[in-house]
Each structure stands twice: as structure tokens, then as C-alpha cells.
Automatic annotation (TrEMBL):
Protein source organism: Caulobacter vibrioides
Any single biological process term in GO: DNA-templated transcription initiation
Residue ranges constituting the RNA polymerase sigma factor 70 region 4 type domain according to the UniProt record: 28-80
Protein name (record): RNA polymerase sigma factor 70 region 4 type 2 domain-containing protein
Sequence segments annotated as region (Disordered): 1-20
Length: 83
């Protein structure tokens, strides 16, 4: 009796190396663009978009109003959207 079993290829987990490089390069570009923002705009954007604070929490941590925070975030996004 011959014992035979089928070997299944391992499933790949995560992106392929080329995609990983593309992601890393994109992240580096975003990081450079963030670094070019004035500190007040960068901080407002990072606290909400990256750190995940609510607008109320971010405004309180910066000791500004939510309306002022919204303005900073809008200006940061506008600057980042221009190539």
C-alpha cells in the first residue's frame, strides 16, 4: 500500500516584497509631507488621524477650541492634497 499525500502550497501571508517596498516608499513620502507642515497643523492632524483622538480630546490636549482644531485640520489636509 503506497502512502501518498498531496502537498498544498503554503498560503502567503501579507503583501509580496514589491508591494511592501511600495508601501514603505509611500509611507516615507507621507512622513516627509507631514514634516513640512507647520507644527500646529501637523500636531492637530496627527492627534486625530494617526493617534485616534476625538476632536474634543485633541482640542483639549492642545488647549484650543474644537472649531480652531477643525480649522487646523482643514488647512493641513489642504496643504497635503497639493502635489
Amino acid at each position: 500500500m503506497a502512502l501518498c499525500h498531496r502537498v498544498e502550497p503554503r498560503s502567503r501571508h501579507g503583501p509580496d516584497p514589491e508591494t511592501q517596498i511600495d508601501h514603505r516608499l509611500a509611507l516615507e513620502r507621507v512622513s516627509r509631507r507631514l514634516d513640512d507642515l507647520p507644527e500646529a497643523l501637523r500636531t492637530a492632524l496627527v492627534l486625530t488621524a494617526v493617534t485616534g483622538l476625538s476632536y474634543q480630546e485633541a482640542a483639549a490636549s492642545l488647549n484650543i477650541t474644537v472649531k480652531a482644531l477643525e480649522g487646523r485640520i482643514a488647512r493641513a489636509r489642504k496643504r497635503l492634497s497639493v502635489p
